[in-house]
Automatic annotation (TrEMBL):
InterPro entries: Cyclic-di-GMP_PDE-like, EAL_dom, EAL_sf, GGDEF_dom, Nucleotide_cyclase, Rev_trsase/Diguanyl_cyclase. GO terms for molecular function: cyclic-guanylate-specific phosphodiesterase activity. The lineage of its organism: Bacteria, Pseudomonadati, Pseudomonadota, Alphaproteobacteria, Hyphomicrobiales. Residues 407-657 form the EAL domain. Gene3D superfamilies: 3.30.70.270, EAL domain. SMART domains: EAL, GGDEF. PANTHER family: CYCLIC DI-GMP PHOSPHODIESTERASE PDEF, OXYGEN SENSOR PROTEIN DOSP. Residues 261-398 form the GGDEF domain. The chain crosses the membrane at residues 38-57, 63-84, 105-125, 131-148, 155-174, 180-200. Coiled coil: none annotated. This is Sensory box/GGDEF family protein.
Length: 669
């Protein structure tokens, strides 16, 4: 057993004097740091050597004071130049290891040479000159050890080759002062070696931690890239999605403005798709969408000289961005080619289907002066095509512009509407995915106009934003919603939507804060839902408003995640409590692996950020079970309840308690 221990100790000691080859990252870090300090080492050697040689030049032989120090100095200068050249060379791990090992063993003869030269000079000097030799050797070895701290083995070789003979030599002189210097140097060298070991260990740990950090950063970047790819990809057709479409539109529009050329936006809607879904089922409908998307993409890729960006906007709608200065004839020709391909028969198993498509185009700068307005013009062109020219291509014109003005009817009536009497509030439950217990309700507005009847929020909310009424509308609805929430149990939260104008207004959100304080509802029970579009409208001001609401104790949810235009960088910079995943990702989660991947990635993102994941549009038990397995926290959708009036919430909660109590009793039984 002692023999084994002795061998192991000897092996460990030998390893101290070798450059490790099993850690290329550490070796490279040593080389980089060492190559910067080695010129300092040789400067110390050369300057101190010249000083000692000058002292002895008149008392010692020329070969000791001129020839030997000249050779040693030239050798040190050459090594300095060699190391300076290494800074700018890109070397392999093998080259670095070989250079460090050669440097390691060159330390032995160089150290021995300078030591032998010092001892040879010593007898020729007077007491002052001899003291200078002692000082020279002590200071030089200390400087060299510090310069060699990144190459531990070389520093240890210098310590042994110089310090051991140094201590023995001056101890043997019998001179008390020199003996004291020898002992002092021995103690200082021991302390320096201890510092050397500690520094080397910390240096190795730093290199290892940096490697780990880089690996983590690479993994995080890979995940971010994958999430970005999935977030910009339509889960069904694997075409670019709505988010990617609007990003391309914004970029193409800015380029067209700068170059003063034309750019067009097109929106395609498949005519006759709904009967396919109704008659053959969603599975066949999905396959038709995929096939139609492939056909349209082939037309777009082969359409020259214009470049056409193609994306699925949602449902049976597709979007086009036509670059390359197109004119009306180019757009008409593109529309005809797309229509011809879409009309070809679709044969799927035993089902034979036929489609056509309506297309609306708008051209910059004739139709609009902003990307958003250009899209709206194309959308209205599509609307006109579906109403009057189904299966045809319509390009936005002055006649259509006149029709748009008729939308001013809604805006006019909205200006004179009584929000308290004409606006109805309904509430949809937000349910804990695991316990199926209602955690809160989202409030939704409905407008019952005396002249127009029931008007969809999709119509009157944008109109209110356009005419500057969205903020008074928000304030009126928030006050009524909080009055209803005040009657609920304390553990039930209220979710309320804010628009871009609410969070980005110059006067801030002070009116909303005042309404909350007067309502008697604790801010901790309130969640404000803000869309990605609202955040990007004026990010700096939106960030301030969100921070203020958060400081009050309110929760912040990012609504319709995956359908807006913002990036993950915005998400990371906001103090969010929840992310609401848009319903478009949920419909085919159990049929389409890509949809499953997207939800999984978004749930993982929420988990990493320690925020809750709320999924909208859940309509079946199978969808709920899948979302549970993926770790989603809250569910909203028709599976649990449709939006209900405020006076129905009490009965809903009572029925829920009975249902959950009954389910719990069955489990116990």
């Amino acid at each position: 057993m002692p023999v084994v221990d002795l061998k192991s100790h000897i092996a460990a000691a030998v390893r101290l004097f070798r450059v490790p080859a099993d850690n290329p990252d550490l070796t490279r870090a040593q080389f980089n740091a060492f190559s910067k300090q080695i010129p300092l080492l040789y400067f110390i050697l050369m300057s101190n050597t010249i000083a000692v040689a000058y002292t002895y030049v008149n008392v010692a032989p020329d070969w000791l004071t001129i020839i030997v120090p000249s050779v040693l100095t030239v050798l040190a200068a050459l090594r300095t130049l060699w190391w300076l050249r290494q800074r700018h060379l890109v070397r392999s791990d093998a080259d670095i290891l070989r250079n460090l090992r050669s440097t390691n063993w060159m330390t032995l003869p160089i150290g021995a040479g300078f030591t032998a030269w010092s001892f040879a000079l010593y007898p020729y000097g007077d007491p002052f000159a001899k003291s200078q030799v002692a000082f020279y050797m002590a200071v030089t070895v200390i400087g060299c050890i510090f310069s060699l701290m990144h190459l531990r083995s070389a520093a240890l070789i210098v310590t042994l080759v110089v310090d051991v003979p140094y201590v023995l030599f001056f101890w043997a002189t019998g001179e008390p002062t020199l003996k004291a210097i020898a002992v002092n140097n021995l103690l200082v060298s021991g302390a320096m070696v201890t510092v050397l070991f500690i520094y080397y260990r910390d240096f190795a740990d730093l290199v290892a931690s940096r490697k780990s950090l880089l690996a983590q950063q690479a993994a995080t970047q890979a995940l971010s890239d994958e999430n970005f790819r999935l977030a910009n990809l339509d889960s069904l057709t694997e075409l670019p999605n709505r988010r990617r479409f609007f990003a391309e539109l914004s970029s193409a529009f800015a380029d067209a403005e700068r170059r003063k050329v034309r750019v067009a936006v097109g929106i395609i809607d498949l005519d006759g798709f709904k009967p396919i879904n109704d008659n053959y089922g969603h599975s066949v409908g999905d396959r038709v969408l995929i096939e139609a998307g492939c056909r349209i993409r082939e037309v777009c890729e082969g359409f020259g000289p214009q470049r056409v960006e193609f994306a699925r906007l949602g449902g049976d709608e597709f979007g086009l961005v036509v670059c390359g200065d197109p004119d009306d004839s180019d757009l008409t020709r593109l529309g005809e080619r797309i229509g011809d391909q879409v009309k070809l028969p679709y044969q799927l198993d035993t089902a034979h289907t036929g489609l056509s498509c309506s297309i609306g185009f708008a051209l910059f700068p004739q139709s609009a002066t902003t990307a958003e307005a250009l899209y709206e013009c194309a959308d209205y062109s599509l609307y006109h095509a579906k109403r009057h020219l189904r299966g045809r291509t319509v390009i936005f014109s002055s006649e259509l512009e006149a029709e748009i003005r008729s939308r001013g009817v809604i805006e006019t009536l909205l200006r004179t509407a009584d929000f308290n009497s004409e606006m109805d509030l309904v509430f949809q439950p937000i349910v804990d995915a695991m316990s199926e217990h209602t955690a809160g309700f989202e409030v939704l507005a409905r407008w019952r106009s005396p002249r127009l009847g029931l008007v969809s929020p999709a119509d009157f909310i944008p109109a209110a934003e356009r005419i500057g009424l969205i903020r008074p509308l928000t304030q009126a609805l928030l006050g009524r919603a909080l009055a209803t929430a005040r009657t609920w149990p304390d553990d039930i939260r209220l979710s309320f939507n804010l628009s871009a104008h609410d969070v980005c207004a110059a006067e801030g959100i002070l009116p909303l804060i005042s309404i909350i304080e007067k309502s008697g509802v604790p801010p901790r029970r309130i969640d404000f839902e803000i869309t990605e579009t609202a955040v990007t409208f004026d990010f700096a001001r939106a960030q301030q408003s969100i921070a203020t609401l958060k400081a009050m104790g309110c929760g912040i949810s990012l609504d319709d995640f995956g359908t807006g235009y913002s990036s993950l960088s915005h998400v990371h910079r906001l103090p969010l409590d929840k992310i609401k995943v848009d319903r478009s990702f949920v419909a085919d989660i159990n049929e389409n692996p890509v949809s499953h991947k997207i939800i999984k990635s978004l749930a993982g993102l929420c988990d990493d950020m320690e925020i809750a994941c709320v999924v909208e549009g859940v309509e079946t038990r199978a969808q709920l079970d899948s979302l549970r397995r993926l770790g989603c926290d809250f569910i909203q959708g028709y599976y649990f309840a449709r939006p209900m009036p405020g006076d129905a919430i009490g009965d809903y909660l009572a029925n829920e308690r009975q249902r959950l109590d009954h389910a719990g009793a069955k489990v116990v039984a």
